[in-house]
């Protein structure tokens, strides 16, 4: 019995879009880390505060929900 494959053809444009997304994400993370440190926060503390503030109504701030 053979396994079904879900082969997806990835184009050069797809790779370029993924590379651009990764670049912009890393840029955002570096800028937000710098901003956090500039006000005396560890970047992890800033990310936790951001997650807590951004939780939808009715969602409890548990470790599982924040992980």
Features of the shown structure:
mainly alpha; single chain; 64% helix; 0% strand; 67 residues
Question: What would you note in describing this structure?
Answer:
The chain has one domain. The protein contains three helices and no strands. The longest helix is centred in the middle third of the chain and has 27 residues. The chain is flat.
Question: How are the elements arranged and paired?
Answer:
Elements: H1 12-38, H2 43-54, H3 63-66
Ranges where pLDDT stays below 50 over 5 or more residues in a row are none
Number of strands: 0
> What's the overall geometry?
flat
Helical fraction:
55-70%
How big a fraction of the residues is strand? Answer: under 5%
Mean pLDDT rating: 94
Q: What is the makeup of the main sheet?
A: none
Number of domains: 1
Distance between the termini: 38 Å
In short:
The protein has helices at residues 12-38, 43-54, 63-66.
């Amino acid at each position: 019995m053979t396994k079904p494959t879900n082969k997806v053809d990835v184009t050069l444009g797809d790779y370029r879009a993924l590379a651009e997304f990764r670049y912009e994400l890393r840029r955002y993370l570096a800028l937000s880390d710098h901003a956090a440190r500039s006000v005396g926060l560890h970047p992890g503390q800033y990310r936790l505060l951001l997650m807590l503030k951004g939780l939808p109504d009715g969602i409890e701030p548990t470790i599982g929900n924040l992980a």
